[in-house]
UniProtKB/TrEMBL annotation:
It comes from the Bacteria. Gene3D superfamilies: 1.10.150.130, Intergrase catalytic core. The keyword Oxidoreductase does not apply. Belongs to the 'phage' integrase family. GO terms for biological process: DNA integration; DNA recombination. One of its GO terms (molecular function) is DNA binding. Signal peptide: none annotated. This is Tyrosine-type recombinase/integrase. It holds the Pfam family Phage_integrase. The lineage of its organism: Bacteria, Pseudomonadati, Pseudomonadota, Alphaproteobacteria, Sphingomonadales. Residues 168-336 form the Tyr recombinase domain. Keywords: DNA integration, DNA recombination, DNA-binding.
Length: 359
């Protein structure tokens, strides 16, 4: 029985006779899928093709890009694993940064780029230091790709330095702010459900908006993160279960827009911004709830490994950023209790020890 395939996707056999799949649409470059139909990976690749990211629009004269220019290099970079392997959302960000830079410098020759040029390009982004650092990262990746292609032998970006950014990023919600939101948006409302889906799972808004009954297995919520591809299996905590049941969730996703459809990424962000403003919390955001969830775990004495099991982070440094707002007084009390308990245990096991421990 022939497998059903979405529009513009066709099956072919490779030289080993194994079935492969490709996206072929008039006016767009061909794209060969890495994942198999029916999988989440395939869905993401297909969506990237529809959006013109994986399968780029064919622009008249694009094949006449000056050989050795950045226009030429970036076109090749967009078809490389360096660009295609990250998530759809990450590719959108990378492409946006590069295209803005390309509009001004695309005609330049790769071999002519020097460190002073890069420093000048980055400085043009000021006073937006975060944007300047993002451009630096993207140019660094682009030049690494150029070296592998044999277009240059050195990476002039390496000698530059990123700008120091004082901001801690998104504001981490405090317990008082959480209480204010809960008081304004009670259990049973869409606002509260969106809030609870993030606070009680520690996931990003982009993942929370797509959570649905199909993700619940044996009283656990199994989510594959859109940004990283990491899969987390989380127990459904009582406050979240109450919120889901009270809000009369949709059949495919828990949270539906006013039009009865899942929120788009941008649409959910805008809606949550509105909900925060209604609760008089203009400085709070959806991503700040993810940080608040990590803070709560840290204040409960959870280890970095335990926190990573919830948030999906892979490094301790990432967790440290998210838990920086953990209550210092509470954590010092927890640390003191752990210290004294350890000393009491040592004293009990070593009767002759002269160490005196105050209760």
């Amino acid at each position: 029985m022939k497998r059903w395939l979405p529009q513009w996707v066709s099956e072919y056999r490779d030289r080993h006779g194994k079935p492969r799949y490709r996206f072929r649409r008039k006016g767009y470059a061909q794209y060969l899928f890495k994942a198999s139909p029916g999988t989440e990976g395939f869905r993401q690749e297909y969506q990237a093709c529809l959006e013109g990211v994986a399968a780029e629009p064919i622009v008249a004269g694009a094949d006449r890009a000056k050989p050795g220019s950045f226009n030429d290099l970036i076109g090749r970079y967009y078809r490389s694993p360096d660009f295609l392997d990250p998530s759809e959302r990450t590719r959108e960000v990378y492409r946006g940064v590069l295209e803005r830079w390309r509009a001004k410098y695309g005609e330049g020759m790769v071999r002519d780029l020097r460190t002073p040029h890069v420093e000048k390009m980055i400085a043009e982004m000021l006073p937006h230091r975060t944007a300047a650092n993002m451009l630096r990262k993207r140019l660094n990746g682009l030049m690494k790709f150029a070296i592998r292609q044999g277009w240059t032998e050195t990476n002039p970006v390496v000698a530059t330095r990123p700008y120091k950014v004082e901001s801690d990023g998104f504001h981490t919600w405090t317990e008082d702010e959480i209480a204010l939101f809960e008081a304004r948006h009670v259990v049973g409302t869409k606002a509260r459900l969106g809030f609870d889906l993030m606070l009680w799972t520690g996931q990003r808004g982009g993942d929370a908006r797509l959570m649905g009954p199909q993700h619940v297995r044996n009283k656990r919520l199994v989510v594959t993160q859109e940004k990283t591809g990491a899969t987390v299996s989380l127990p459904v905590l009582a406050p979240l279960a109450e919120s889901i049941l009270a809000a009369r969730p949709g059949a495919l996703v828990f949270l539906l827009s006013e039009h009865g459809k899942p929120f788009s990424r941008k649409g959910f962000g805008n809606k949550f911004r509105q909900w925060c403003d209604e609760a008089n919390l203009p400085h709070c955001s959806a991503h700040g709830l993810r940080k608040a969830a990590a803070r709560r775990f840290a204040e409960a004495g959870c280890s970095n490994q335990q926190i990573k099991a919830w948030t999906g982070h892979t490094t301790d440094s990432e967790v440290a950023r998210y838990t920086a707002a953990a209550d210092q007084k509470l954590l010092s009390d927890v640390a003191a209790d752990m210290l004294m308990a350890n000393l009491r245990e040592r004293l009990a096991n070593e009767p002759a020890n002269s160490l005196k421990v105050n209760s």
